[in-house]
Amino acid sequence: MSISSEHKPLGKQVTGSLHALSPIVELNVGGEMYTTTLSTLKKHPGSKLAEMFTGQPKLRTDSEGRFFIDRPGTYFKYILEYLRSNQVPTQCIQDVYKEALFYDIEPLIKQLEDSPQIFGELVARKQFLARVPNYSENIELMIRIARAEAVASRRSSVIVCVVRTEEDAARCQDALSSLDMDKKSVVKFGPWKAAPSISDLLDCIQMDVEAKGYKIAFQPHVAEKGFRFKSHDFFYKFLFTWW
């Protein structure tokens, strides 16, 4: 959104309280330039955005005297659209949600949380993963193991044991004793008490590792030697590709 050359309300002499400034405000949000009004920015008095422009200026200015906010400027236009017309964005929902949280615009936060994208992530997926013991720690452990095994290799793999019930956990432990592998390198997920299946959890693991920038795929891990349990009932190989 371009700045109109007709308005230069702030200039380089930003002094005194905001009450003494023109009601027209120029902003530099992460390199994107916007023009709006103080009343728009202060529409929700309890928000962090409103507090930025209440009383004494709480923001630095750029070389042209525009108030500078060090946030992604691309998504600020959606914040302004909502403040101006109560229009809830239908694009870039996840990113706009992050910005709404930063600016603490509670009505927008609540409406975005009702959208299918945010509802599915916060209420469905995140609530499920919260019931999987040590989920986040295990994701980090997987990555550490994969990176340790990546020396002079194009790919490295991590064996994951996924168990949904306590009974499966006991059977998995027996299976581990039969597998010809270093038990310390096997990352165990579960058990959990929730509706999603093992395949759902595997999809979550892949999704969250890929969100960290890694290229990853998985497949059932079949033991080279036989034992009384089918290894693919519990064990999966996650393959990291580095180049």
Automatic annotation (TrEMBL):
Residues 23-120 form the BTB domain. Signal peptide: none annotated. Transmembrane segments: none annotated. This is KCD14 protein. It holds the Pfam family BTB_2. GO terms for biological process: protein homooligomerization. It comes from Probosciger aterrimus.
